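Incident log, structure service

09:12 report received: a user says their structure output differs between two submissions of the same chain.
09:20 pulled the input from the user's history:
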Amino acid sequence: MRKTNERSERVAALRAGYRSELDQGLERFFEPRRTVCPWCTSDRLRRRLRSTDHLQQKPGTFVLDQCGNCGHVFQNPRLSAEGLEFYYRDCYDGLGQATMARLASSPLAKMLYRARARAVLPHGRPALWLDVGTGQGHFCATARRVHPYTEFHGLDQGEGVLSAEREGRITRAYRGSFTELSHRLAGRYDAVSMYHYLEHTPAPRSELAAAHRALRAGGHLLIEVPDPQSLSARLLGRWWGPWLQPQHLHLLPLANLCEALTEHGFTVVAVDRREPHVPTDLTSAAANLLKSVLPAEDLPWRPRRPGPLSRWFRRAVLLQTAPNLIVLFAVDLLLAPLIRRTRLSNAYRVIARRN
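09:34 re-ran on a clean worker, output below:
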């Protein structure tokens, strides 16, 4: 009860600020709509889907278009810098920090982290490793058990990277833009990882160039991203978790990413469409659907706190549906070995060596 009251007080304190921003309209959060693909400049575009913010339930509607030439999927119109700041706020930091920390330290997350760390072993043991988009550094803390002699550094734009350094999950923290900081880090690292990071960036090619700068010759770049060619994406439609609107700006087909890596001075040495699968498709789709029909949660971007009857009804529905979500999660885990062998797998991994 005390935690509930503390959260309600924090939400109330933030409400006036959000209200002031929202009163100015949402149009300023978006760039002009593109008429050509940002990856190959083709004008053969079609709408892939429309979505709302399932994760935070902030207001707005977001569109993903797909290129008919190269298959690239991208947000169109794309969030501006001001829009990105607004929609990321209180998600990984601030109001949402505790929730994200619990998810990042869960048994499932640790299992995925260990698999990512082990995938590097056939290519050597890095002495110095930079994890880009590290969040609160939980991957690095787990990977250190697989690579006990590796020094892990983390880079992110949120304040979580600073707490990761304070709490010892990484040795050194860099807060800011990788494309800007990479000039300071030129030629330092044996490994640079981008786990579910590239899809969040406005300019993925610039991020690949930054990784090339930060790596030593012969160093390895490790990338995992959602697979927009996954059959799960088609079957689950806008409820598919990895669409993650409005945060995911670009979803790259595997062939496009491999081609871009070659253009930026890398040699692709490993590709994996099986192990990187995150076994939460059914659970996240059900949770997204449930959020869309539930009475409003008390959130600072809502105009007012929901009334007692609405809050009671929401709690009652959650109590009734929670067992079903648990069952779906168990099904996701049980089916994972089979799913990983099919095109239902929802992510892929690429390891590339700097030439």
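09:41 both user submissions now match this output. Likely a transient worker issue. Closing.
09:42 reviewer note: The chain has twelve helices and eleven strands. Residues 97-278+347-354 form a domain with the Rossmann fold fold (CATH 3.40.50.150).
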